[in-house]
Design a protein that fits this description.
By secondary structure, the protein is α/β, with parallel strands linked by helices. The chain folds into two domains: 201 residues, Rossmann fold (3-Layer(aba) Sandwich), CATH 3.40.50; 32 residues, no CATH class. It is built from eleven helices and seven strands. The strands form two sheets. Strands 5-4-1-6-7 form a five-stranded parallel β-sheet, with helices on both faces. The chain has a two-stranded antiparallel ribbon with strand order 2-3. Helix 7 links the parallel strand 4 and strand 5. The chain is globular, with a radius of gyration of 22 Å. It starts with a helix and ends in a 7-residue tail after the last helix. The structure holds magnesium ion. The site of magnesium ion has 7 residues, from loops.
Length: 278
Amino acid sequence: MPACRSLIASQLFLAAVLSAQTAAPQAAAPESLDSVLWAQTSVEHDAAYLQAFRIARLMLDRAQADRTWTAAIEQSAGYERLPAAVILDVDETILDNSPEEAQKVRSGPTTSLWKEWVRKEHSTALPGALEFTQYADSHGVTVFYVTNREAPDKPATRRNLGQLGFPLNTHIDPILCRGEKPDWGSDKGSRRADIAAHYRVLLLIGDDLNDFLSGVHVAPDERRRQVSAYSDRWGERWIVLPNPMYGSWEAALYSHKGELSHQEQVQQKYGRLRVIDP
Ligand SMILES: [Mg+2]
């Protein structure tokens, strides 16, 4: 019957349209699809952030009351009377940039959209981050943002943070970008040391080992040793957030050799899998 054929034809057309909309492009990176979707859609992601910032708030109260408390290993003596501060990373710690990662899943892993994304100032606040930073600020604790965004991206970053309501101390510059000073490289140790010279650092909060320690661009086994060596700090002075999308953990899988092609990196990652039958 014509009506029936028409119905089938329209259903087939609809199926084709839906398929075209949802089909993964050939160049997509399947290894990042699930991690991006986890960050964007799972309630477990949101709960992990809320949990982390709740712990951070509890620890902030303890840290303020204990003048011998410091979170920074760059701080060893003479800090007890310094004003209090907390140091937070920005990306995937307090700001959600997963749309940029999602775009790469669609358009291919080698597409660089970062600069364009940062200048849109469309990053959103991650769960619990705003409330925690405002709590710290309202309790007289200076909030510092130590980020590996580059210095030219600082104005856009400041506007993005300000529009979302993150506290931005107007008496000092609370955003410390990579490359802003000659010794401020991607290793954040020198920036932590500069803050520690003037403030007692109550907490370090981040999504990458680099947010807590220097010299983390080493092999996975060595990174595991670094974490173990400071096991008493996690969940107390150091609060870590989950980031399955990117980070020094991922580069460690291919020995931090950024010059390798994407295919070579993927090949080395497969070699890292622990399987039932090696
Ligand atoms: Mg980060």
